[in-house]
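Q: Okay, next protein. This is ABC-type xenobiotic transporter from Dinothrombium tinctorium. I've checked the sequence twice, so it should be correct. Can you predict the 3D structure?
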Amino acid sequence: MTVFYGEMLQTFVVFSRERDRYFDSIHGDTRVVNDSFVLVNKTLYEEGKEIIRLNQTHWQINDSNPFEINQMNSTDYERISNDFFREINFYGFALVLNGLYFLVFCYITVSMFSLAANNQAHRIRLKFFRAALGQDIEWFDLEDSKDFAIKMTTDLARIQEAIGDKVGLTIYCFSCTLLAVIFAFLYGWKLTLVAFATMPVVAVAQAIIAKMQATVTIQETAAYGKSGSIAEEVLSAIRTVVAFGGEEKEVNRYSQNLEPVKKSGIKRNFYTGLGNGVMWFFTYASYALTFWFGVKLIVEEDYELSHLTIVFFNVLVGSLYIGQASPYIEAINVGRAAAIKVFETIERKPKIDSYSITGKVLNELKGKIAFRNVFFNYPSRPNVKILRGFSLTINPGETVALVGPSGCGKSTCIQMLQRFYDPNHGDILFDDIDIRDLNIGWLREQIGVVGQEPVLFGMTIAENIRLGNPSATQRAIEEAAIDANAHDFISKLPMGYNTIIGERGAQLSGGQKQRIAIARALVRKPKILLLDEATSALDFESEALVQSALDRASQGRTTVIVAHRLSTVQAADKIVVIEKGIVREIGSHSGLMADRGLYYQLVKSQEQETDETEFEEVDIANGVVKLDRTLSVASTEYKSEKSEAVEEEVMIFRSAMKRLISMVLHYKYSFLLGCLSSAVMGISYPLYGVIFGEILGSLENKNTSVIQQKTVTFAIMFVALGIASGLASFLQVYIFGAIGERITMKLRIKCFHAYLRQDMEFFDDTSNSVGALCSRLSSDTSEVNGAAGSRIAIMLQACFCAMGFIFLALYFQWKLGLVVLAFVPILLLAAYFETQILAAQLQSASDAREGSSKLAVEALSCIRTVASLRRENTFYLKYENELIKQFKKTKLKCHLRGLVLGFSQSIMSFSFSAGLWYGSKLFYDGLIKEYKSIFKVVEGIVYGTSLLGQAVAFSSDYQKGKRAAVNIFKLLDRKPKIFDGNRNGLTFKSFEGKIDFNKVSFSYPTRKDAQVFKEITFSVDKGQAVALVGASGCGKSTTIQLLERFYDCDHGLIYVDNVDIRKFNVEWLRSKIGLVQQEPILFSYSIAENIAYGDNSREVTIPEIIEAAKKANVHEFIKNLPAGYDTHVGDKGAQLSGGQKQRVAIARALVRNPVILLLDEATSALDSESERLVQEALNEAMIGRTCIVIAHRLSTIQNSDKIFVIKAGKVVEEGTHHSLIAKRGNYYNLYNAKK
């Protein structure tokens, strides 16, 4: 294009000279003939002396011989005019062809690279997820794997952007630059060398800046990964956070971890702005140097004007495309930084590879197990020895029970048998073969596992059971469910076995989950059965049936049982007593009792608990949700308010950008400076056109001294323009980038805070998950930068540029200006179509990404269950299917976007062709006196149009930002039904804790057709300790949720101290309640911080923490840890055993000193001795407090002041233990279920 443009300019110059000479012969004038001769009114002068007077009517002077006067007639002039139009038409048509070339190849580049990026991103996502699933458990212990949602959304999106059309456009820019350099050297190597003299400086500077950008981006990614892991942890335990009033604490923790993200982002924008500023300064400086030296060559070496123009335009094009490549390079550098962690995971070779195909596969596994002098400590706690020379032999078909205090290493043995870890020293053998020599996948297929905290997945009940055996038929699934005593409650569900149970089985009770987990293990028909407190969450009737099924299942299988309730293991062939990581005693129940050793002491401590019973807490048929389960996340609309939601969405859409801009205007002084900088940058393009046109006009002059003088002036102007543009470019990128980072941080905090203030109805809808929320928190807020950050700078720059070239068009030649401006609406129309294409593409991609992220996060957060089932490939295929949904939809949109973007990029050539052709006609007709006006208008407008084309290239970012802003403000505007963020509601100086349920009816919002309470009525007096008992699904845990005001009742009233519970300040009411759940959730703090979490309204002192730990019987254990109370408990308390976590959770509740104490199986995970001590502590803590106890072990509730028996949503019996036994009613039947 530059060659055509240069030759066209030469045509204008030649024709201008010939035309002036022709008209001068008619009218008389003063013209410069060459360096020495001047023609004045038909008289030729040399250095002021008259040489000859010309009398011809028509004449011309031959440039090769100033004294040779030739006759020119009208025919000659007509021939010159025809030559002029022929050449203009030729070069104009060539520019049109050049535009078509741009259109075709830009379409190919963008569409093909976009398709390739989609393909590669699809493969990377699959490889990353597969690699993460295949990592050993040690990796999950040591790495911060909770930021998986961040990697699956933000990081992989950055990678996709980096390898997509940005690569194609970068290659396109650099290939254009390379061709420009080649043509420049062909037409004038001397001038080209001078023109590119600044390029090495620019290249070195850009390389250094790119390196800094990459370093800062790595820091930014790592920092956000940490804050993202906090968000995932908190949202996974939302009910625990709310119950203990930890919302502000978690928002502050999240905010503090976002601060490094913001600082790194601002630094990145600083380096980007610096790079742009350097580039623009040296670009205009090279223009100045090029023209100055080019004119020198024309004067001294008879250099062709067209060659100067071609070299200059090639330098211009090279610089322009390098500038356009800058944001693309930044996107690529950001993608490179994001790819580091992703590819580290993909390329990591785990020590224990679950995908390994090596290792022995036995024809038959007999089931002999041997531990030989095994030493082991967890990788995350190398100083804490778990197994210390553990040796044990289990013969084929034996049922062996592992018993001992909490933390002695029982569950560790279960994990090592599944080869989650390898011993530090010693060997584990299966059928006399080292476990490390067996194929790990085959080994896990031979083992069935039921854990203490069973994990289910967000699929149907049938699919969950089938995870145990993918080839199981529906009949086999039902038989397994019958054996697990789960068939009856499943059959009562509206969808039966096709009921979707939510993320981690959120819609089931603990007992129901455990029975399905048992069915999952039984359908596997394993050779080895590992039961880790497999019946701990069952009521007595269910336990008796399930235990009988497990006893049958154990026949002919090697079975290892971990149990705290020694009554469940008395029939074991061998009982192994473990203490401090070594075997203390081995024998049968009778033999160990006769030895009167450690086992005897454990049994004796449980003798007073022989009258045990177990009940479940919740039934999905009644719609009750377990208290502290990991819940799936809701959308932002109430199903019962669809019409209002639609109207609200329209209003939010209209106001989203307005509200976003108001956030930008908060930084008004920075914003004004940024706007001023954008104005300078925008106006610099038209100014460049004016200066360029003046330079071209000066070359018409034959007086070399005048040309040189003007050249120096214009060169200085270019340098000044370079300084102004460089400074303005730096300021606009840095300022708007910094504003964007600050707004992004603010929005992340606002969104996170908005999540934490939502009621539980928000979290009960199964359409979303924790992974989806984290994905939105990451992607939506990041994408807002497209509408509030550096893209504002580009938009403002484009606006000022448009105003500038409109002024050029109207001031210099309005007719020509209108013709060139006619192409701008076409460009804007192309931009509109592109945004429409992108809008649909982004929405479908967002939906698919959230679905896949939900599945991936669920699988990774339950990796132990996935690994033990050996279902990595099952979840991998499900994830792949989720991605394919989006993958297929993107192909057509990639082609459409390539076509539209290619058209927008070709506009420059089309507008050049039309503008110069029409300008030549106006020039010939005399409507334009000087051809430099043509180039001022055309060059200024077309150069500005290229900026609009660049803005179009980033219109996707703006569209993403606009859509993300709508989503964010929709969330921020959602009004939860139960929220007290403005501190409204009643508070009292004295609070007694009297509780009354008065004809309360309730059903969960997601299951309105399943009523939990049917006008239930009961009272708890001040200081009373009452127990709630009943069969599965009666609604015991629902009372706790209603008292915590996670929900409000549908009908009836709940009174606390004779005041409607809805009138209290929610936060104040919750601060008076202490809660201990059946499945305690700890946070990735230290032990001390976890205990102090019980009271977030003040600074809990170390003595208070220690006192609470002593009451919970956990102080001695903590004191013996290397780091003591500063020991970090890991993700969800993973570094502690179940009993240790439970005791820390009890200490957390006690440190609060609550008026009302809610105990939901508070001692279920404790061994007998720990339970006895903790129960004594709880009994003491219950004195003077109102207590509601839900327990499976009747020994813990027999001394209650009152026991309420709940059945079918109503209280059917109430009284003391002895009075209820005397009635021989429902309680009596429950009491005798175990006997």
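A: Here is a summary of the prediction. The chain is about 60% helix and 10% strand. The CA atoms of residues 676 and 754 lie 35 Å apart.
Q: Noted. On to the next one.
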